[in-house]
């Protein structure tokens, strides 16, 4: 990988601490989205191939790795507090800090952990070099470069789920987004590499394949022949046999629109969840213009209609930011009306968070009290709509694929064909299998049942 790197002088007190003997245990903490999780998997894979063993507690580790996120201020603050605490409690450990916060705010991370090696997201393959530098009393700082998409490590399966990064980077220039600082250049893995890893994962027991990226709608624009997302999903379905389901990740509306019909044709295969993650961000055209989103509300509605006309029961998940600079009360109520009209099955609602190096940071800000009030109002409406949608399932017998343990103790999550989650009592034998269950209860977020039976 081509990386601009910096190896700094010897760190006082670190040189020779292990007398040339490499560390063999590591601890890993991950913050942020599925891309961050994927990058953490790459680092873990590289370390374990070299003989390192992962431990559950930082105090048991020789090397502490923290993979960071930069998307929100509160997340940045939580990471900063954690790094300070770790360094205070365990000052003699070796630290590698990686991820989006390293690329977007390297000065901040360097101040928090001045002795750490730093790796941008595109440099996570260099984790062994970073550790080796620390072993010799130095630190490796790699803040630039291109992601190496020529190969992909074997991907771990969590319960019955495997996450596959298919691309990184975007073509947009959103006014609020700091992620573009950390993951700007579009780099796509080839269909061949992705198909090979998906096939291998399915053979090892994966039943849910999560295709993720910064914006999966721009997959392939950098590859020869420019295969798009529809081509990739079709290739997986054609070349990977087995009883599995594909969940497609976040797609920006304007980028997916030109080939939406082809993608919907691919979605007809039962092995694709009828799930679409299409962020709208605002229901007001003027705010969308300020955000530098390249579509209008009417264009978004047209995409929504095209999906629902083909798959009426599809889950359409969206992202909405309240309190972005330029959002008036009138603009906010336009967003409320859009939510009430389209009745999204799932809404990721966030208050605008000021981020450095973004255009929106220099704009006149909406007061925090106003953002909180708008979030409260819209959050209540989102919950009411979600509950109404999910209550339709109560009393029905549904078929679900059990994919993972639930965060609720003693339970597991199954997924309907449209990715609606149903919470079931945990049974190891059911993991990765189809079950039938009668829906007994619904929340705005999920369905619930106290019993199930294997599906034929």
TrEMBL record:
Record domain TRAM: where: 391-453
EC class name: transferase
CC cofactor note: Binds 1 or 2 [4Fe-4S] cluster. One cluster is coordinated with 3 cysteines and an exchangeable S-adenosyl-L-methionine.
Residue ranges occupied by any Radical SAM core domain in the UniProt entry: 156-388
Annotated EC: 2.8.4.5
Cofactor(s) the record lists: [4Fe-4S] cluster
UniProt superkingdom: Archaea
UniProt keyword annotations, A-Z: 4Fe-4S, Iron, Iron-sulfur, Metal-binding, S-adenosyl-L-methionine, Transferase, tRNA processing
Record-level Gene Ontology MF annotations: 4 iron, 4 sulfur cluster binding; metal ion binding; tRNA (N(6)-L-threonylcarbamoyladenosine(37)-C(2))-methylthiotransferase activity
Reaction it catalyzes: N(6)-L-threonylcarbamoyladenosine(37) in tRNA + (sulfur carrier)-SH + AH2 + 2 S-adenosyl-L-methionine = 2-methylsulfanyl-N(6)-L-threonylcarbamoyladenosine(37) in tRNA + (sulfur carrier)-H + 5'-deoxyadenosine + L-methionine + A + S-adenosyl-L-homocysteine + 2 H(+)
InterPro entries recorded: Elp3/MiaA/NifB-like_rSAM, Methylthiotransferase, Methylthiotransferase_N, Methylthiotransferase_N_sf, MiaB-like_arc_euk, rSAM, rSAM_horseshoe, rSAM_sf
Annotated MTTase N-terminal domain residues: 24-136
UniProt cross-references to NCBIfam families, sorted A to Z: MiaB-like-B (TIGR01578), MiaB/RimO family radical SAM methylthiotransferase (TIGR00089)
Functional note: Catalyzes the methylthiolation of N6-threonylcarbamoyladenosine (t(6)A), leading to the formation of 2-methylthio-N6-threonylcarbamoyladenosine (ms(2)t(6)A) at position 37 in tRNAs that read codons beginning with adenine.
Membership in a protein family: Belongs to the methylthiotransferase family. CDKAL1 subfamily.
Protein known as: tRNA-t(6)A37 methylthiotransferase
Organismal lineage: Archaea, Thermoproteota, Thermoprotei, Desulfurococcales, Desulfurococcaceae
